[in-house]
Amino acid sequence: MGITQNDDYLLHSIRIRLYPNYLNGEQGKYIARTINERSLSIEDVCKVMQTRGGFLGNYEDLLHNIHEYYEEVAYQLADGYAINNGYYSIYPNIGGTFNNHKIAEHDREANPISFRFSVRRKLRDLLEKVSVVVDGLADVSGGISEFFDIASGVVNETVTPGGQFAIYGNKIKVAGDDPSVGVYFVSVADPANEIKVSGNFAENTSNKLIGIVPALVNDNQWQIAVKTQFTGSTTKLLKAPRIITNDIKLEAA
Question: Do residues 149 and 242 share a domain?
């Protein structure tokens, strides 16, 4: 049975598994990763509003209006406005530093544009009603615990074609001379459609991989597969590659 906290007043629960802690400077043997079957789309949330929330309006109208709202939010963000919906705020951000106050043209590489999220009070208050259920240790014989889409700054949800990514896990180092060894993006709709990451990895260790997302990874849902002969030792490799995957589904950004 999982471990819960203060079940008498908590209305929601988040399920987690524990993974070995490989983060530098962090104390404690394990870190938690939430267990998510998949990310909910706008369509999914609208359907749940009807089945759970009792929404009595027209589903198609609801879907249309919400899509229109987010289109307008994106438009206003692109014009430099911050958006606050009470649960979280989104605001444009310019990274890097400037050496001269007389800028002739914006340098996208030195001063990249991004959007930042900030949690507001309504969402913070909700945390008081959430319990944590620990489902024990994850399988650490080799596994992927997190996919970080560096281009969008989002974890375990999106993948940006042509952008940089980071994969965190255990025994995921890409090693071996078998031609199939590498990192692959596998189509959820058609698992036979898998696209291999080309080029060198900026980082290739037992616990972290950094590379570039292939441009062909678009208009689909994708999962990650690491094919490697790595065993945990730099001197002993498997005779044939093993495949490391997980259930994270990524939407092409």
Answer: yes
How far is the C-alpha of 224 from the C-alpha of 90, rounded, in Å?
A: 29
Which pLDDT score is estimated for 25?
A: 64
- Residue 194: burial class (beta carbons within 10 Å; 0-12, 13-18, 19+): middle
Q: What is the pLDDT of residues 154-203, one digit of tens each?
A: 889 899 999 999 999 888 999 999 999 999 999 988 888 999 999 889 99
CB 187 within 8 A of CB 222: yes
Strands in 100-236 per DSSP E? 113-119, 130-137, 143-149, 154-155, 158-159, 164-170, 182-187, 194-196, 203-204, 208-212, 221-230
Instruction: Output DSSP code: residue 1.
Output: -
Please indicate, yes or no, whether residues 108 and 145 belong to a single structural domain of this protein: no
Domain membership of residue 3 (yes or no) is no
Beta bridge partners of 131: 13
Instruction: With beta carbons less than 8 A apart as the criterion, state whether 216 and 184 touch.
Output: no
Give me the CATH number covering residue 201: 2.70.50.70
Neighbours of 76 (CB within 10 A): 14
Supply the range of the domain harboring residue 237: 140-252
CB 109 within 8 A of CB 164: no
Phi, psi angles (nearest 5°) of residue 92:
-70, 150
pTM: 0.56
189, 187, 157: which is closest to 37 by C-alpha?
Answer: 157
Give, to the nearest 10 degrees, the angle between helix 42-51 and helix 59-78: 140
Are 155 and 148 within 8 A, CB to CB? yes
Are residues 168 and 206 both part of a single domain? yes
C-alpha torsion sign, points 148, 153, 155, 158: negative
Q: What are phi and psi of 172, to 5 degrees?
A: -105, 5
